[in-house]
Design brief:
The protein has 394 residues and is mainly alpha-helical. The protein has 15 helices and eight strands.
Length: 394
């Protein structure tokens, strides 16, 4: 299978520049770069006797995005406009996260049992996130402009400093540790949940076997950890990998992942997509299903293509994010309307606290309201098939 390294990253940079507006003096270069990338992909595919539609999912979607750009109508900034730096690089943010993660592991039980210590650590996480925001502001930017390593580190700090997420994190550490001890009793373990691109990494320190999991796994119940470490203890690595991969496609994991990403979305909303305008979608859905009474949230498209979670509503800042995967002429209008309706239901109905102290968003009342959408069956079938196609082509 042909994989084109750097194509997805290039697509993300192009999208970010389109959202901000391209300086007039850079328009020609911008167009040439896109044309060159599209031409290079076509040539590479020709050399391998294939078409771009046969590329792996991420590369194929990146190519389609680039090829669909109307190069004659690229949004430009005013010549006098002050441009934000494309990326902001800050030192010591990643190392700060690593130190704090090690501390959470070392004192996890005390944090769960001592409210004063718990509050102090959460305050430290919040202060670290604020420091990043202050440094970004001093550079005339915001956290969305952070470089690829620093941005997820900031999101992790922000995520754990709000709501009950720190408690969720600590409870997951406790469950994972108990399962590791049961099934790998001869090893000492160190476990971390972090905002990272990989699902799982393992290495060995001088004193322990260190497991680093994506933060999304904090949403997993205790039986998951028991089955996972049982497979690892029996050296069934294929089964272990399949369990991790399957979990990343499930809703609880995707909710955490989207929440993490939402902290680094651009401060300025971007409701106008390449094909769909979220303002128009909101107005249509608000009129049809909420009597025009729903207050408009901040509307934005996601920075990344997603394959499972196609929308997310964040209560803290009244922000609704739709997946870039839906901003495509192949996606019917009623599907985008359904995602808008689904997320606006979250806004209206809020969430309940489950008996396990985890938040429950999709209650029976929510599901009943969701089915009021006129094309509910058609939309859910389309989204399931879209998700399956994207996952199968990874």
């Amino acid at each position: 299978m042909v994989k084109i390294r750097g194509l997805v990253a290039f697509q993300n940079r192009v999208r970010d520049e389109l959202l901000r507006g391209v300086p007039p003096e850079k328009l020609d270069t911008f167009r040439r770069n896109i044309e060159s990338a599209v031409t290079a992909v076509k040539k590479l595919c020709d050399d391998y006797g294939m078409t771009p539609d046969e590329l792996p999912g991420p590369s194929r979607n990146a190519y389609r995005y680039l090829a669909s750009i109307d190069l004659s109508s690229i949004p430009a900034t005013e010549p006098s406009a002050v441009q934000q730096p494309r990326t902001v690089k800050l030192t010591r943010v990643v190392s700060t996260v690593n130190v704090l993660s090690a501390r959470l592991w070392a004192v996890r039980d005390r944090l769960l049992n001592d409210e004063r210590v718990f509050a102090a650590v959460r305050d430290e996480l919040a202060a670290s996130a604020r420091r990043v925001e202050e440094l970004c502001a001093a550079a005339g930017a915001d956290p969305s402009m952070l470089d690829g390593r620093t941005r997820p580190a900031y999101c992790w700090l922000k995520f754990l400093s709000e709501g009950k997420r720190l408690e969720d994190h600590l409870l997951a550490l406790r469950s994972a540790r108990a399962a590791a001890i049961r099934h790998l009793p001869r090893q000492r373990h160190e476990i971390h949940f972090l905002a990272m691109s990989a699902m799982w990494k393992m290495d060995r320190t001088r004193t322990a076997t260190r497991h680093r999991f994506h933060e999304g796994f904090i949403a997993c119940p205790e039986p998951f950890w028991d089955d996972l470490f049982k497979a690892l203890g029996a050296n069934r690595r294929d089964e272990f990998g399949r369990m991790l991969t399957a979990t990343t496609t499930e809703e609880p994991f995707q909710e955490v992942s989207c929440e993490l990403e939402s902290y680094a979305e651009p401060g300025k909303e971007h409701s106008q997509g390449r094909h769909y305008d979220l303002d128009s979608v909101f107005a249509r859905v608000n009129s049809a299903y909420f009597g025009g009474q729903m207050q408009r949230p901040v509307l934005t498209w996601s920075r990344r293509l997603t394959s499972r979670m196609f929308g997310y509503y964040r209560f803290a800042n009244d922000r609704l994010m739709a997946s870039q995967s839906l901003d495509d002429p192949s996606v019917p209008e009623f599907v985008v309307d359904f995602i808008m309706y689904h997320e606006l239901l979250h806004k209206r109905l809020g969430h309940l606290e489950a008996a396990s102290d985890r938040r429950r968003f999709h209650t029976p009342a929510f599901r009943a309201e969701e089915r009021r959408f006129q094309e509910f069956e058609e939309a859910t079938v389309f989204l399931r098939q879209l998700s399956e196609r994207m996952l199968a082509s990874r």
